[in-house]
Amino acid sequence: MAKYVANRLFAMLITLWIIVTITFFLMHAIPGSPFNQERNTSEAVQRNLEAHYHLNEPVFVQYFIYLKSLATLDFGPSIKQSSTSVNEMIGRGFPVSAELGMLSLAIAVISGVILGIFAALKHNGTIDYIAMTFAVIGISVPNFIMATLLIQQLAVNWEIFPVATWSSPMHMVLPAVALATGPMAIIARLTRSSMIEVLNQDYILTAKAKGMSTYQIVIKHAMRNALLPVITILGTLVAGVLTGSFVIEKIFAIPGMGKYFINGINDRDYPVIMGTTVFYSAFLIMMLFIVDIAYGILDPRIKLHKRGN
Q1: Residue 135 burial by Cβ neighbours in a 10 Å radius (0-12, 13-18, 19+)
Q2: Per the confidence metrics, is the pTM higher than 0.85?
Q3: Which residue in 33, 61, 91, 183 has its CB near the most CB atoms, within 10 A?
Q4: What CA dihedral angle connects 270, 272, 276 and 277, to 10 degrees?
């Protein structure tokens, strides 16, 4: 296990370096600079600003300067907000984005698993059709469209929930639900198909023959094996939830990472774009690693072998 973890950590560092490199050079391949929009600034001042942020250096020199600062976990100062560092922006925005993402993921997992189990137990029945209809709608409708519909119906027409900002539990409901619908639908369909397969296994039929109740069969025997595919895709779902939250945060005016990332793109704020991209990439790579470890713990049949065995 220790050797496996060490190999995975090395692979994670290589992956992160590739992401940093590709993002850096793609960003600098776009013509212009962050100061082109400063109409009231003289050319001399712009040159001084570019020299201050090393933008007058060759792109490879800028790249190695950035790698050096990144090695100390310093994402540098924001170009447009010179009094604020990118680390401070991440420190303010990530807790909000993480709260939204984890709340949405909890809603998606709990509701998706419940829908999938009931659909499997009532296979080809009314409950199955209703649950899968919800799943198809959740997969088909993008989260920003779902957010607009929720705002129109539940905030504007019925005035049940408030919108904008992130100041109370009531403000969290609509963005969390809008962000959770897609992952919930995926989990529901996956749980349903996996549960149907597990319920037809011999050991489940044996448990039924012994007179065990449906509740005991599902909780004690079927659920653990049926949820293994769900565990497998959790890393991908976390990536989808966190990247999808950028749009949802913009729609609901939530002061999370999405606000800084979108503003950074609009302002050509290189340190903000790089900082948020690197931070999220590292976070998502770590989540995938945790999911792999959890999968091995939940399924004792999985063993770590040397390549080639």
Answers
A1: buried
A2: no
A3: 183
A4: -10
